[in-house]
Give the backbone structure.
Amino acid sequence: MKKLLSKKGKIITIVVFSVLLVVSIALAPLVKINYDMSSYLPKDSVTKQTLKLMKDEFGVTSNMEIMIEEDNLFQGEELQEELSNVKNVKGVTWLGSVVDITQPIESYPREMVEAFYKDGKLLYMVEFLEDEYSSKTDQAINDIKVVLNNYDAKYRGEPIVAKGNRDLVFKEGVMIMSVVVPIAIIILFIFSTSWIEPVVILINLIVAIVINLGTNCLMPSVSFLTMAIASALQLAMSLDYSLFFIHRYMEKREEGMDVMSAVSDAMKGAMGSVTASALTTIFGFLALLTMRYTLGTDIDISLSKAVFISFLTAIFLMPLLLVTFDKLLFKTKHRKLVPEFKKVGKGIQKVRWGIVAVLLIIAGTAFYFQGKTKFFYGAAGLPDPNKIETRHDNAIGEVFGFNQPVVVLYKNEQKTEAINFAEKMLTHERVRSIQSLVTTIDPEMPIEIVPEEYLVQFMGENYSRMIININLRAESEEMYEVSDFIIENAEYYFGEAKALGVVTSLTEIKEVSIKDGVIVAIVSVLAIMLVIAIVFKSALIPVVLVLLIQTAIWVNIAVPYFQDKTLSYIGYLVVSSLQLGATIDYAVLLTSRYQEFRVDMKPKEASIMALTKSSHSIIVSSLVLAVAGFSEALLSRVEAVSEMGELIGFGALYSGIFVLFALPALLSVLDKPIQLLTYRKKEDEKHEEKNS
């Protein structure tokens, strides 16, 4: 510590962090953001295999639908030509693609006409040359909107959803941080003993956040879900490290120590708690590495890296900040605005057995009902009625029905099978239309005279494609039933199922995620218990702390069951790992103080003092994490992000409440077995025996 705070050490620290900040700010805009959730499926998944085959046969394309009000079909034809000429548009299908508009449309089958023209409204199906996540597709959408500037056009499709998410991620990240930071400052002011304390803490955290954003450039890509939650969560999760150090420092300085001695003692005294806190959080996320659905890996690496950077910043930058701001810290010192929890601690000890009994009842009840909560498995989840994309989807759906396209690939020589498969598909009430060579063109027509524009759309070198339009709008059990119907019949008629679309990819994501869930839960619990066991040299403390936080997690997941809410399964996995790894810090801090005081005090007294000394840090940490979560929930228009934010917010509060009110009771009630199963130095054991 002396070397770090020597003149040379200070200069090196300032230079290193300054360089890291400048480089990180420069690299942050270069981070590649991934919006394709299906790309995280295992390599052997049908979705990934079909996508590769689709690229080989037809290139990478995506589709969007546009609805405009236009009675003049010849004007509609001119618009079709203009849209077709937009850069990066491969083709546009409309009414004139299936009927001769120079002839009375009444002479054509009603179903054929109403697929593209109904109630004076025209529907265009636009195919882009690149996928929905391409910047070129994004620009093409902007150019199309210019062409249709004079129309009240409605748009829907995956390119529109992807564009909406792309436009939101950066704006939302800035907006959420602009809310979280001021509220965090207010919370820190309320619970601090110096007006400058929140400034010191936030300088340390902001440096860590900026470095983390820049180092994301080292990753191949970062999911948009990760980008949406990372900065606010990093601030909230790693706030503990700065709090632990600064509170210890203030204690030592108030005891009369000089600056250097106080910094050294504070770092030594809090290092165990800070290290344990960082490791439990990181290990909680590392469990996500076991997921075959590698979105978990993406989130894990990003957030684990964020926590590790915050940990290093707290160790190396915080001592320098404490020394630099020492005079200001004490010049701006004020009385505590929030009373200590000493009276609360005494009250808890009076009813400790009752608290333990109630905790056991809550744990059993919450465990039962959390198993009944419903989940969705996609990134979008339930449509937000306030989003413009949802309003457009509803408007088109009211006229032409809702649509989820599924592409099925079959070998070129399987023409007869394709005809039978298409007929079978049309028997399902949710299949609204099919586009393919065997349905759009007379099957008896020789392939040589099929118009080139149709041929290139539906036939590749070895495979042909069929687009099945499903009248469904959101993820549901019915959607999974339709997916099974398509896949089972594709296997029956073609000998294999090569299907691609939101409907079928979500089915795979669901199957993979459910298997991942059990493994993630087991690995995260075992990993965190191992860290705590090593830190406390105890066999029982890990069990007590993990079960306590796990109870808070069960409550967090069980409550939505009574609210009849459907949760994001991916969000559930991430939040469960986050809540266990991040909020067990509160329990680690209180328990470490308990063990510290237990050397010279009886169990009840040690429990009261541990709560008194750690309560403010726990409250601040849980409140800031809750604020970060609720800010995501209230401000994000990405459904999965909003869902995760709400779970994080309530999870932080539940964990904080359980630690503050249940853990002191547990520690005193279980004191004898805890001390018996904890390795202690001989000197400490003698002290404890006197106070037993």
User: Anything to note?
Assistant: The chain has a mean pLDDT of 85. The two ends are 37 Å apart (CA to CA). The chain is about 65% helix and 10% strand. The longest strand covers residues 62-69.
